[in-house]
Amino acid sequence: MTATAEVPAEPFPFQLVPGKTALIVIDMQRDFILPGGFGESLGNDVDRLLKVVPPLAALISAAREAGMMVIHTREGHVADLSDCPPAKLNRGAPSKRIGDPGKYGRILIRGEYGHDIVDELAPVAGEVVIDKPGKGAFYATELQDVLAAAGITQLLVTGVTTEVCVHTTTREANDRGYECLVVSDCVGSYFPDFQRVGLEMIKAQGGIFGWVADTTAVIPAIQSLATTA
Ligand code: C5J
User: Fold this and answer.
1) Could you tell me which InterPro entries the record lists for this protein (predicted)?
2) Surface-to-core class of residue 159, CB atoms within 10 Å of its CB (0-12 exposed, 13-18 middle, 19+ buried)
């Protein structure tokens, strides 16, 4: 029988299953996170997202050392915007829409500098990068096939933003039968209230769609998996 590692999570302990647990890092892209980027141009305080980078770098490093699968996602669109429905394109500030020029290239367009992941969290060779046109990482992507092929049943969910792409992906995953632990200091929102309530919502009602714990709980559990493997 495979030894699991228990994470002291809320609302109750979460089991990390070796070989069946993957870390998913959602949309840690320059457009959302860097000063001068799309997120800041909308009036957001990017420090609230930047502070996620150091704990998330430590978590990714622990996962890699334990041989855990690491998956990255990027929200964005093809250059002619044919995969961006008008309902998404026509939202937000009229002068700063998807495809418009921004400090780091055309906003949220695949291949542009701003669309890519921040240097500190860059994927390494062999890690899967999922390009997604929506908020959820399962919508119109190969994610489910990738997870099924690898035999993954548990997800450690991280990235930005807590109430948008992290929530949407966690809900999608929960509905598909994955057990999801959202790592609280590795997810970020531009809005402190949304961060707090977003995390509360996940673990409410006995873990309505997931578990919550921070890196002080998750990293030692990953490390113990590595030593018992
Ligand atoms: C947003 C995201 N907020 N990654 N994207 O538009 O959460």
Assistant:
1) Isochorismatase-like_dom (IPR000868), Isochorismatase-like_hydrls (IPR050272), Isochorismatase-like_sf (IPR036380)
2) buried
